[in-house]
Write a structure and sequence with these properties.
With 313 residues, the protein is mainly β. Helix content is 0%, strand content 53%. It folds into three domains: 31 residues, no CATH class; 120 residues, Immunoglobulin-like, CATH 2.60.40; 134 residues, Immunoglobulin-like (Sandwich). About 8% of the residues have low confidence.
């Protein structure tokens, strides 16, 4: 049985009137406390908050990008994330794919030749890992994207707004040389000894380097060796190479136009630069102008082939 422990206290009471002490009393009191007083219980607590995700690796695939002339090529930027709150806590990702020589920029300036941006990229569980996710941003890269080294900068975000950012190593965008022309030149209905009207044929640079343009012609559509030395083969007769001509400028007239040949020949001073405008073709597309003369001795439908070649300047 615990022994009672006495506690003694004193209370002093003083009454003041003006500057004189009229009465002073001293009161003494005591009481017993049963038990020990050297044992206390303290509660502990901690608030475990959300843990930020860690983006630990970013890669570009393919690491060597072969662009498609005149079209787009899919390039993926993939981020690998660890989140100790579980992979499902990773909300999504944003990424910028950019030409290394241009850098990330101000985050506001983008163009198909040097910098792409995607937001809201999806994330999913990495295999069966409980705390790991992959986030993929898939870019449609245009044919005139600069050749050289590109990088991807990715930022991942969790459900609480915490973020992690990392840059990839470099990937190589290869040089692509491409050319596009209209599919046909239709001179219409003509009589023998008649000159056609001037027809326009557009030529476009469909690659990511400046190009020179060369051409050759042959009669018909199949025999590139052109044994008949013709520009067109008709139901009756053939049209020699000299009866089809072209020019770089409009309105020169037949006599000043250039005769086509069966030998691949460069068009002098006719360079098409790389496309730079994302909304329309400009200097990367130019016109050529064509005429035909119908000689005596041919009749019926006539056809021929013109081959165009692009070479890097």
């Amino acid at each position: 049985m615990k022994k009672a422990m006495p506690l003694i206290g004193f209370v002093f009471t003083t009454l003041l009137v003006g500057a004189f002490i009229l009465l002073t009393s001293i009161t003494m009191f005591s009481f017993d406390v049963i038990g020990d007083i050297n044992n206390r219980t303290t509660l502990t607590e901690v608030n475990v908050t959300n843990t930020a995700p860690i983006l630990f690796h970013v890669e570009i695939s393919p690491s060597t990008v072969d662009l498609v002339p005149g079209s787009t090529t899919q390039v993926n930027c993939t981020g690998y994330v660890e989140d100790m709150n579980g992979w499902a806590d990773v909300k999504g990702a944003n990424a910028t794919l950019y030409d290394e020589s241009y850098g990330m920029g101000d985050g506001l300036t983008f163009g198909n030749s040097f910098r792409y941006n995607l937001t809201g990229c999806g994330c999913s569980q990495l295999e069966s890992e409980l705390y790991n996710a992959t986030c993929v941003c898939s870019f449609d890269v245009w044919y005139y994207a600069n050749n050289g080294t590109w990088q991807c900068n990715m930022t991942v975000e969790d459900n609480y707004g915490l973020k992690s950012t990392l840059n990839s190593s470099g990937a190589t965008v290869n040089t692509v040389i491409g050319i596009y022309t209209g599919s046909s030149i239709n001179y219409g209905n003509l009589s023998v000894t008649e000159y056609s009207a001037e027809k326009i044929l557009n030529i476009s640079n469909f690659g990511n380097v400046n190009i020179n343009v060369s051409l050759r012609a042959f009669g018909g559509t199949s025999d590139r060796n052109n044994p008949t030395n013709s520009s067109m083969m008709c139901e009756t007769g053939i049209m020699d190479l000299g009866y089809q001509r072209y020019a770089k400028e409009p309105g020169l007239g037949w006599e000043l136009m250039t005769e086509i040949t069966n030998t691949t020949t460069i068009i002098p001073e006719y360079t098409l630069p790389v496309r730079t405008n994302d909304t329309s073709h400009q200097q990367d597309t130019n016109n050529t102008y064509w005429m035909v003369y119908v000689p005596v001795g041919v009749s019926g439908r006539c056809n021929g082939t013109i081959e165009f070649w692009a070479t890097q300047t």
